[in-house]
Amino acid sequence: MIEAHIRPKIQPLFDIIGSILNQCYVTPNMLTLCAFLCGISAGIAVVLHYLYLACILLCISGLCDILDGSLARLQNNAQPIGAYIDLISDRMVESAFIYGCAIAYPEHIHAYITFFIALLLHFTTFVAAGALFKNSGNKSMHYDSCLIERAEAFACFCAMLLLPNYMFWILSALNIGISASAINRFIKITQKNSSRD
């Protein structure tokens, strides 16, 4: 939702940052690696109960994840393998964060398991749609925007870190949003393609 409505308004800022990084000979793959390492480190920081540090690392990870695509387009170097690695890296960062929470706050185990189930459903519908339907946008694959995307997930993750006493309820709300997004995508795509038959 943020991706669809707010991103176009602030994309010029990311393009400026991308231009500066380009002049410093930074590559999109470097940014993808930075996003991955910072995201994994955020999960470790949660385990060690450095919650503010984890929040900062998550924000850096998210920024690098945005900038790698912006830089790739600026360099006219967007490649399928880059998108492939980026998708896997994103899921590993999310998994590392939730795993870190599970170690640090094991009392919320049911919320963590529900998160992984919801994420599996969400990502399966996303990837299946990307593989089966023609891409008509500027992304690397067919992309359906939805209620919960990466920006919303990261906002919830940061809220969990800043308000640890409400971690269970914030994650539960995120789980509902992820599940609703996946179910909505499934219904929308099946109805859309059934009407063509």
- The overall pLDDT average reads 86
Q: Count every helix, treating DSSP H or I runs of 4 or more residues as helices.
A: 8
What general outline do the C-alpha atoms trace? globular
Roughly how many Å apart are the termini?
A: 30 Å
Please indicate the percent range of residues in DSSP E strands (runs of 2 or more).
Answer: under 5%
Fraction of residues in helices?
over 70%
What structural class do the secondary elements suggest? Answer: mainly alpha
Low-confidence stretches: none
Which sequence of SSEs, written as H and E, runs from N to C? Answer: HHHHHHHH
Rg over C-alpha atoms, rounded to the nearest angstrom = 17 Å
The beta-strand count equals 0
Largest sheet: none
Written account of the structure:
This protein has 197 residues and is mainly α.
Write a short abstract of this structure.
With 197 residues, the chain is mostly helical. The protein contains 8 helices and no strands.
